[in-house]
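User: Predict the structure for this protein chain, please.
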Amino acid sequence: MASIAKKFVPTIVRQSHGLQRFMLLLGFAIIAAFLFIAIFAPWLAPYNFNADRTADGVVFGTQQAPSASHWFGTTVGGTDVLSRVIYGTRTAVEVILLAVLLSGIIGVPLGLVSGYLGGWLDRILVLVMDALYAFPSLLLAIVVAIVLSGGNSSAFGGIMAAAISITVVFIPQYFRVIRNATIAVKVEPYVDSARVVGVRTPRILRKHIFSNVSQSLPVIGTLNASEAILTLAGLGFLGFGIEPSAAAEWGYDLNKAMPDASSGIWWTGVFPGLAIVLIVLGATLVGESLNDILNPLLRNRGTDTTSADEAEIAHKFEEVTGAEDAAVEVRTAPAAADPKRVVALSLNNLEVNFQTDGGQVHAVNGVTFDVAPGEVVAVVGESGSGKSVSSRAILGLLPSSAEVGGSVTLGNRELLGMSEDKLRPIRGDQVSMVFQEPSTALNPVYTVGWQIVEGLQAHTKISKKDARKRAVELLEMVGMPDSEHRVDYYPHQLSGGQKQRVVIAMAIACEPDVIIADEPTTALDVTVQAAILELLLSLRDRLGTAIVLITHNMGVVADMADRVVVMYRGNVVESAPSRELFASPKHPYTRALLDAVPHLGRENGPGLVDANELVLKVDDLVVEFPGRFGQPTFRAVDHVSLEVRKGEVLGLVGESGSGKSTIGRTAVGLQQPTSGTIDVSGNRISGLSDRELRPYRSRFGFVFQDPASSLNPRMSIGQCIAEPLHVQTEMTQKEVDAKVRSLLESVELGGSYAERFPHELSGGQRQRVSLARALSLDPDLLIADEPTSALDVSVQARVLELFTELQHRLQFACLFISHDLAVVDTLANRVAVMQDGKLVEIGPREQVLGNPQEEYTKRLIAAVPVPDPVEQRRRREERGHLLTDIS
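Assistant: Here is the predicted structure, written as structure tokens:
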């Protein structure tokens, strides 16, 4: 215990600051003191807790005040109060440890099993636990104590009975916390990834569920210790505690001290009461401090531009431009400002540094650019370039660890250095922001109308009725269908595109001079993206608003931007009008960025494969999900049939909700079909249970969309890749290690990465690990579900190159699911188009993407922005009749 504390306590103390550090140290000091007293009670106590000290001059029936012989005085029975407090400490610590340990041993497994398996077992356990939780804790403990009072008068028996009484109170708490956490974790992609390779339920619960929900247990246990002390004292005070002759107990002593209080004999009750207060205080301080330290949302995190993401981008940059030029050409001097130019927002030599545990991190270095009224300036660059940090610095939205220098002016006013009180009327009124992820930007517990009204009333004197009317008008302006009713919708009732429109409505509510749009179309379908871009441009034209567009999508830049600012490693490396930059990029990084962008129809993609053996056959597949609260059944996949042969890539495209991911999950047994059949390598897998599917799991692999969530954060990279080998093969550990190193080499990472953890890798590196894991068993079929949608363009390009190399070499069949038609065009031999659960078109790549027959396919292709401003302008003019307003 001492060695663990020696390592653990300094670590968490280093992570805390100021008052939090003082509270943590005070809590640990109090708890350490009580533990010391409990362990050495027989040597510290001057007398036995029940020893009659009348021989010291105490007359029976009276109490001796604190003195040199009895520091805390004596009780009415002549026993030494100090000795009883010391022995009472041992009793309290023993009961607390037993109660917390027993309740965790029982409550945690029940919560895991209930949350993961669900069904009738979950309903029964929830009913039982809710019934126990409904009882007042002290009353429940009394009932259990009465039931257990039949017998053992020994010290251990009494302590165990008291611990069990308190354990019954705590079990529902552990159960509820772990069950709810398990329900959230079991839908994570890394759990599905384990199921795909045939990992059995006990291992999933232990390695994938418990390891990721157990971080809250130290906090729960510490805070429950406080409740255990008070419950034990309450039992003793009411006479339901430990037999007085078996052990000293503070609650019993308080009960006996009550008659003394009216006689001015204070010491018999003060010292036991003070002991209870101190130990509760110590446990509470430690518990609350651990909660702040272990909660990742409360940590003070800076922005590290030397992260693995940037390292990978830099590596790609150096591959294209030459390592010698990378450091030299990192900054391009800004063009001289036109003195006649009217500027809405100007950044001049903006610097942002973050203070971290590892020292100072330079996130933004001397960034200079401006935007005029009615102009769209795109700030582009990949993750870690500093573009989002720059935008947040404008409105003072950076964390306290940031140090900001330079100048940011709105018109003639300097924004940097403004107090919160002065910035508040500017935010949302004169400068507004469209955040990248609308699901997190909108408050889930308020209607979207309420959130728009809140912004209006914060900046204008308007009645609630008029504000609601204005909110409806704003929703109509951004193209929200049925805005009169949807103004009362909650965010979860809207689609991704609709939520993005709400965020834009909030941004334009006060007709701001400047809108900062931070990745406003990331992860949106191409048709929804096109509608959002049309909306922003119409707002620019109608209101004369200046727009700062932050993105890494060069097609969006070509579609919208008047001027482009390119950032790399916190520096502006190039700034030019949009047409000039795309036609003749000056900086090597800009050229590398543009070269990495996939371009629909620009290159000759792969042709048809020979008549190889059939690997995946989907025949008349139907997948339905039951409706809730009286809603009808939802049909996600509607009579779909398709085939994929050895060495072939079939691109499955369509908008969100079209059913393409459901087909992929059904193909590997993660979702059961309602009807129809699925065969993999000639084996019928549809309708099989997890147990029956296990022998076939080695035939297919799965690469998930989000590389960050598809790898267990508590497992090393080597453990993640090795898991399928442990589950499906009889290989020795030495053979497994060699295979893991070989797989890492095949995805160009190297064997040294086996010891790292997912958070230490960039997005592209994590996706390579996911690919290595999926291919570890040499599968016949690979399902790739949006595997590059979360990656920067240069990282995406390298992952796609690697994917193509492996596919040509290993000749696995692949169902490649994506809404990015340009990516599919570079990879797929054939393309299948999904709409509303139905297969509307399927055929060779060049036919479906080059000469589509269905109007829906034509609309999808027309909505794809291309990285060419001239071509994009022409396409914008021609596609108007093809695009519809996507709700």
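The CA atoms of residues 112 and 767 lie 29 Å apart.
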